[in-house]
TrEMBL record:
Signal peptide: none annotated. It comes from the Bacteria. One of its GO terms (molecular function) is hydrolase activity. PANTHER family: PHOSPHOGLYCOLATE PHOSPHATASE. This is HAD-IA family hydrolase. InterPro entries: AHBA_synth-like, HAD-like_hydrolase_sf, HAD-like_sf, HAD-SF_hydro_IA, HAD_sf, PGP-like_dom2. Keywords: Hydrolase.
Length: 231
């Protein structure tokens, strides 16, 4: 299936054979805008552990969706950066904002009877704490962090775990992500993947990853998620 950036949205083909009953969301860049907080936390962690010089945040962002220790390994940076990065992320969590339209999307999906989960590159405790502070945690039946599966994204384990917890087959699910790692995880689990473009990621790279749907604003997902029959 060829996906063009002008498609709004592209109806899933192939993997999603029936309207979804389950939606699995990535967290950062999909539900919440945390990039300013990430930048500051990364800069502090880099200065504390590595020392002087500019922190390579732009490279870090290119690996979004992966677990922090995996990103450090890929970038050749010390694993010890994780402690100050997590510490600063907690300290600055009050500055994270929910994207416009996300609350309305979650409310509508819940009214329509869909079950929701989060599968994130963050550690599970940190993800749940952030969602709780933003008032979003009650929308999700499960929030799964990368430290709670054997292999984090781009492996399919975290999406498979979400389906297991929700007792849903892959053909009844769709995964919403803003990074190629999200789409790879979904594809590996046999789940349709939708590219979320409202944060302004590297569009070309994300579209090249072969999403089944392209969403430019949160409300676009509603066209793919009608009410669950009998709800």
């Amino acid at each position: 299936m060829t996906v063009h950036s002008t498609d709004l949205p592209v109806a899933p083909a192939g993997l999603l054979t029936t309207p979804p009953r389950v939606v699995v969301f990535d967290l950062d860049g999909v539900l919440v805008d945390s990039f300013a907080v990430m930048r500051e936390a990364f800069a502090v962690a880099y200065a504390e552990v590595v020392g002087d010089g500019p922190a390579p945040f732009e490279e870090y962002v290119r690996h979004q969706g992966r677990y922090f220790p995996d990103i450090m390994r890929i970038m050749g940076l010390p694993r010890e950066m994780e402690e100050p990065f997590v510490r600063e992320s907690y300290r600055l969590a009050h500055r994270v904002e929910v994207f416009d339209g996300v609350l309305e999307l979650l409310l509508t999906l819940r009214v329509r009877g869909l079950r929701l989960a989060v599968a994130t590159g963050k550690a599970g405790d940190r993800a749940r704490s952030l969602l709780d502070g933003l008032g979003l945690l009650p929308f999700f039946a499960h929030v799964i962090g990368s430290d709670e599966v054997a292999r984090p994204k781009p492996a399919p384990d975290i999406v498979r775990r979400a389906l297991e917890l929700l007792d849903a087959p892959p053909e009844q699910a769709i995964m919403i992500g803003d990074a190629p790692t999200d789409l790879a995880s979904a594809q590996g689990a046999g789940v349709a993947g939708a590219a979320a473009l409202w944060v302004g990621p590297d569009e070309e790279e994300l579209l090249a990853a072969g999403p089944d749907a392209v969403l430019r604003r949160p409300a676009d997902l509603l066209a793919l998620c009608p009410a669950v029959p009998g709800h």
